[in-house]
Amino acid sequence: MRALLGYRLASLARSQRWAAPSVLFVVVIAVAAWNDAGPLLSLYGVCSATLLAAATWLGMATVNLEDPAQRAITLVTAGHRATLASQAGTAMLGCVGLAAVGVVLAVVVGHHTITPGVLLLGAGGQLGCACVGVSIAMLCCRWVLGYALLAAVLLVVLAIIVPGASPVNPLLHALSGDHPSALVVLALDAAAVAVLLGGVELAHQVARRRD
Hints:
80% helix, single chain, mainly alpha
């Protein structure tokens, strides 16, 4: 798995398909945080929602990186489940980097009172949304649903606005409160990880039947 993950990371880096979602994320956060003096957690809510979209984009770029011939070789070598797991892992590693940028950029560009607890809550909110975004990408790749860009956009929007559809809406709601509970954010992050694992497994089952 480590070798497969390294191969994915190297392929994604060479393709530069990570650049567009990364630039989108950084630009949105920089604009939102510019001279902002409001609650830092509310700004981290913006970071989290933006990372949801960026994670979906980055995940789809990662999953769709290989052409059919390359993918067939990878499947024979590693199997369906390991292939999808490495793709999800690659996308999540990229999202961890983006979340770190979001935590730091919001502090550097804006004017906020900083505490370690707020920084951890902001990071937790972003990583939870990233898990859901990568799960959406797993389900909307061309090997599962075809080129399902509209489906991915719809799922991202629903995840944000529909309570109970995913951990995203409760996470954003928690970050918008005055005194969010760290236990609540941690529980929602655990639920988001479960959503990611479920998305990878469902994508595995569907892709295996299609192949």
